[in-house]
Amino acid sequence: MLRVVRRASALWWLGLLALGACGPVPRPFAHAPGTTAGAAIAPPPLHGEAPRDGATAPAPDSAPVRLVILPVEGAPGDAARSLPRALAAALRGAGFAITDRIAENDLLILGDVALAPPRGGIQDVTITWTVTAARNDRDLGQVVQRNRVAAGSLDGPWGPVAAAVAREAAAGLGDLIVRTALDQAGRQRAQQLRIPEMPGAPNAPAGPAAMPPPGSRG
After folding, report:
1. 48-79: b or e for each residue (b if 16 or more CB lie within 10 Å)?
2. Looking at CB atoms within 10 Å, which of 126, 179, 195, 213 has the fewest?
C-alpha cells in the first residue's frame, strides 16, 4: 500500500494526515521527511473496470460518484453528529455529491475515533476515515489523522474543531478518490463519472492546511 504523509501546521490539529491509496499513481507522492512510501498494490475494481481473475465485469455506466458518510464510531462528545455533518459540508464544498441512500455506484466513508487513556493530562486521538466501494464492499484506502489533545477536551461539543478536522479530512479523501478513479479508469472515465477535480490533483503534492489554535473551540 502506498503511504503518503501530509504534515498539518503546528496549530490545533498537529501531527500527520496519512493517505493510504490502494493503487499505483502517475508518479510517486511527496512524503514528509523521515517517512517512506511502500510498494503500490493494484486497486480494487471501480465502476466498470475490467475484471480480474475471471470475474464478471459490471456493466459500464455514467452515473456520478456519490459519497455516503456513515456514522462515526467511537466518537466522544458530540462528534458522532458533528463530524459527519462537517465532513459532508466540506466534501459538498469540494464538488462531491453527498447522499444518505446507498446505491451500487456510491462510495462509503466510515469514520472511527480512537481516544487513548489520559497520561499526564494529555490524550492521543486518532481519526480514521475508510473509503469503501458499495459495489463490491472493497476498501479503496484510508485517511488517518492523529493528534495529542488536552485530556477530556473532546468530551463535549467539538464546535469549530469538527469543521477543522473535516476540512483536512476532506482534502485527503477527495485526493484519494480522484487519484483512484484516474488511475483505474483514466481521465476520460473520471470525466464520464463526473468526479470533481481537487486542487493539485492528480500530481501535485498537497501542502499544509491551517488549523485553529488551541482554545478556539466555541
Report:
1. bbeeeeeeeebeeeeeebbbbbeebeebbbbb
2. 213
What are the pLDDT digits (tens) for 83-98?
A: 999 999 999 999 999 9
Task: Note the pLDDT tens digit of each residue in 68-83.
Answer: 999 999 989 999 999 9
Q: What is the pTM of this model?
A: 0.61
Instruction: Name the fold adopted by 63-192.
Output: Rossmann fold (3.40.50)
Given strand 122-133, what is the order of strands in its sheet? 2-7, 16-21, 138-150, 122-133, 107-115, 66-69, 97-98
Res 214 pLDDT > 90:
no
Cis, peptide link before residue 202, omega less than 30° from 0: yes
Least Cα distance to 113 among 124, 122, 101, 105 occurs for 124
Domain ranges of the chain: 63-192
Measured CA to CA in angstroms, residue 91 lies from 48, 51, 107, 113 at distances of 24, 30, 13, 19
CA atoms 134, 138, 139, 140: torsion sign: negative
- DSSP summary character for residue 104: T
